[in-house]
Structure prediction request, 659 residues.
Amino acid sequence: MSTEKTKDDVLVVKNLKQYFQVDKKHTVKAVDDVSFSIKRGSTFALVGESGSGKSTIGKSLIRLYDPTEGSILLDGTEIAGPMTKEKKRFLTGRMQMIFQDPMSSLNPRRKVLDIVAEGLDAAHLYHSAAERREKVYDILEKVGLSKEQAERYPHMFSGGQRQRIGIARAMIMEPELIIADECISALDVSTQAQVVNLMREIQEERGLAYLFIAHDLAMAKYIADYVGVIHLGHFVEMGTKEDIFEHPMHPYTKSLLAAVPEPNPRSKNKVVETYDKDALGIDYEKGTKKYVSDTHMVLI
Amino acid sequence: MERGKDTQPAVLQVENLRISFQTTAGKLRAVRGVDFTLHKGETLAIVGESGSGKSVSARAIAGMMSENEKIEEGSILYTYEKDGSTVTEDILKFSRKRRAKELYGKKIAMVFQDPMTALNPLLTIETQLTEGIRKHLSLSKKEAYQRGLELLAEVGITEPALCMKQYPYQLSGGMRQRVVIAIAISCHPEILICDEPTTALDVTVQAKILELIKSMQKKYNLSVIFITHDLGVVAGIADYINVMYAGKVVERGTPDDIFFHPRHPYTWGLMLAVPDMNTADDRLYTIPGAPPSLLEEPVGEAFAPRNPYALPIDFEKEAPLCRLSETHEVYSWLEQEEKKTEMPEALRKRIAKMLENAV
Prediction:
């Protein structure tokens, strides 16, 4: 994937580093020199186990963290570096986030109407209370909730409905990119399917892009156009959906794929391979990026 | 129900279990007449969405009830060996003291979904692991420590002595779940109840924990009740499957019955909602709507409003039991129809593909 072209990329990340200083001697390199780009209207799935740095990337991009180094181009505009008021306004109008746990990401003491309208309030995007209300109703309808439900509180909804509220809150800003951080992991399988389908419908209608952060490869296969596999803060493999799922190259990717439980009682007994990078003699920091094809990158 | 002649004897028989919760909004009927039988050494899976009553039923067996919870009806028959003879008793009739002394933690152990909340954050692993051992097996502190070390090694913790000194926050999610499993098997239980043990874990860790549960089961001939919402997880581990919806079992059978010949529309929906790595559909099937509120007793079949195959009678009367084979049962009005309703085309294709890939 060439990171030079920026015209049809909504987001271009170059050499992003996110370090956390634990104490004077220790620094955690949560994200170490990561580059990727997301095309307009496409879905980029960021896949990895817990502790791989996938959520940290999401939070650095939306500037919940201050990136240690690197460049983040959103619509061609640099959003890394010190935050200014204009930059913040630029960012929130174009990039929004959906969180994993819909219960802890929604304020339990506010009505759905006010939760969803929060972005509008902050950016002063309406002229009257009626207009604000109208905008919220529209978006609630889009995500499959009724306007009567706008007067209720988060605890009165089921898990799947709460996640719809989270999506509505992100959507109301009409962003070009939504970062979905494990947004279906806390839901039942049947509800996961509802939320994923809703996200795809909205994508087709509005042409927005997703950064879909997940540990569930099967779901990533359904929703993604591009997939980046991340381990210990490094991309070990990146490519189109076909590259990753049909022709995985890196042993870590293969171990992730092998671990997906198959809903088939007579499937061949898969042996869960333990991936031990030290035993395989792999050092990510010394690794070089090899392009197998135009789209398919492997770290070796 | 009897499942063929070569099955092991039953350890646990749940019969017509009804459980309700007294809430501020009224009486919530979480479990509405559930029966199932757990045989010795087998894994019985209970599958359903949240709110289907699967956890509530299992927790009742493990004696974990909240204050507003009431068992309205039913029995839980436990069969065990006592002085050389086989005794069957209803554990719901045991006194509280007797249950705590003889059953919980000793004969019946439980593994929870979230190992962080199952472990006490303020106590070391040693304290939490040896507590049950000392109480139920009457071992000294030193002996219990030794036993604890063995257990940790057994569940795959590489440095047991170090782990004993640590607190839960110092362990990763997978390690914590291993500790919880070590605690569960520490007193040689007969029945192990696993309530969504892998839902909070990563795929790779999930696969390893499932393997661990399987190997422990084999080693100790445990009878396992495995609760999950994910049919994908169940396929590799279950010997028998109960599918629950709105507080009732809607279909049950062997994994072959459920995965290759599912008959209830709810089971169809559950299967199609699982993303499949082998098919390339770009749209996931969803079960429309949400599970019903059980504050009011549903009229007719609880699944009818979400069921595209519902018949008029589904809205009036509960479906009768239909025995399809020695192992396979379904509660559905569709089975009473003269013309058999076929499963959705997408599912038929998926099953054909599964059979192709089968060994």
Notes: The mean pLDDT of chain B is 89. DSSP finds twelve helices and twelve strands in chain B. Residues 250-357 of chain B form one domain. The CA atoms of residues 51 and 217 of chain B lie 28 Å apart.
